[in-house]
Design a protein that fits this description.
Elements lengths: L4 E4 L3 H16 L4 E2 L8 H10 L7 H19 L5 E6 L8 H9 L3 E8 L2 H14 L4 E6 L15 E6 L9 H14 L5 E7 L4 H7 L6 H17 L8 E8 L4 E8 L3 E5 L4 E5 L4 E8 L3 H10 L3 E7 L5 E7 L1
Parallel strand pairs: 1-5, 2-12, 3-4, 3-6, 4-5, 6-7
Antiparallel strand pairs: 7-14, 8-9, 9-12, 10-11, 13-14
Helix pairs in contact: 2-8, 3-4
The structure holds N,N,N-trimethyl-histidine.
N,N,N-trimethyl-histidine binds next to helix 8.
Length: about 325
């Protein structure tokens, strides 16, 4: 079995540089803000895994049910030819596995490429999948899906780019539109895009998913301060910040924030920065947009895709959308 090809578009010092820039820019802005991607160090990823097991957090279970139950339909909707699959934000590549299994069972899985920011995770998942899919060409891309789509593998068969888990909703509108245009530009006519998106529903259900009774989301949200303490030698006291989550109905968006419960001065030694907080002052720590199928399909058309199929779970919590380039 040949060694999987690894395309490194992001080095560790790139990640450090963007962390420093995000932190400096966000902590010196009014209002203060930090991007959700900063939450996912080892501890944050572990907390997110625990969060997916909370009864209120429906997303992962709902999307897993769709992909498990509809994998053969999705594979059939890709035609009858071999397919090369690239999963953006692959993590452990757990979400896409039912589709990979359906294609492999039909002898149609030509290649699989996990695409993620963490080189170690990409290497680990390639080692794991070499056993599961011995006949498939495996490769990996270590990169940022908002910057490195030009590095997709140039397999001549149908390419399926999958972007699951609802992460698309963490991008603000202009960045979502940019991402869709960049992806369309990176694909050829006939290639496909499989997108997992959280759907608009009862706001009480949505808010509960971001403020679970066990407090795991609150701890996940405060983890961004632990990341700054460890990576930038800051002295945040996460316990002095309250997890706040609100639903912006017109924008169909969940806003997450951390609210200072007392006046504070925080030293961010790694940036040479003193950051003051008035009592009640907030750091905006990310958004999660919820979608209406017709509007999302219109956004796909605007970017040059032709929506061809979609599936939801029994409660229509999550949607999985297939579109053709
Ligand atoms: C994994 C990014 C989709 O936005 O719902 C969960 C992350 N943040 N609870 C989401 C998250 C707070 C999650 N995504």
């Amino acid at each position: 079995m040949p060694q999987p090809e690894l395309r490194i578009c992001l080095a560790d010092d790139d990640l450090d540089a963007s962390l420093r820039l995000d932190a400096r820019r966000g902590l010196t802005s009014r209002p203060k803000h930090l991007p959700m991607r900063l939450h996912y160090d080892g501890r944050g990823s572990g907390l997110f895994g625990k969060l997916t097991e909370q009864p209120e957090y429906y997303q992962t279970r709902s999307e897993r049910a769709i992909l498990r139950d509809r994998a053969r339909e999705i594979a059939a909707a890709l035609g009858a030819e071999p397919v090369s699959v690239i999963e953006l934000g692959a993590g452990r590549a757990e979400k896409i596995r039912p589709v990979l299994d359906a294609l492999a069972a039909a002898g149609r899985l030509d290649a699989f490429w996990p695409f993620d920011v963490a080189e170690g995770e990409v290497r680990d998942v390639l080692a794991e999948l070499a056993t599961a899919y011995p006949d498939a060409h495996l490769g990996g891309i270590v990169g940022d899906f908002t910057r490195h789509l030009a590095h997709l593998p140039d397999h001549r068969d149908t390419r399926l780019v999958a972007f699951l888990g609802g992460t698309f909703g963490n991008l603000p509108g202009p960045e979502r539109a940019r991402f869709l245009l960049d992806l369309r530009e990176a694909l050829r006519p006939g290639d496909r895009f499989l997108l997992g998106a959280d759907l608009v529903k009862d706001p009480r259900v949505i808010l509960a998913a971001y403020n679970d009774a066990a407090g795991v989301t609150a701890e996940f949200n405060r983890n961004v301060l632990h990341v700054l303490n460890h990576r930038l030698d800051a002295d945040f006291e996460p316990g002095n910040f309250e997890h706040v989550v609100t639903w912006d109905a017109p924008a169909a968006t969940v806003d997450m924030r951390l609210r200072a419960m007392k006046p504070m001065e925080v030293d961010v030694a790694g940036l040479g920065l003193e950051v003051r907080f008035a009592v009640g002052e907030e750091i905006h720590t990310g958004i999660s947009v919820k979608f209406r199928p017709a509007e999302l399909e219109e956004d796909l058309r605007t970017a040059g895709f032709a929506p061809s199929a979609s599936w939801t779970d029994a409660r229509a919590n999550m949607g999985v959308f297939l579109a053709e380039a």
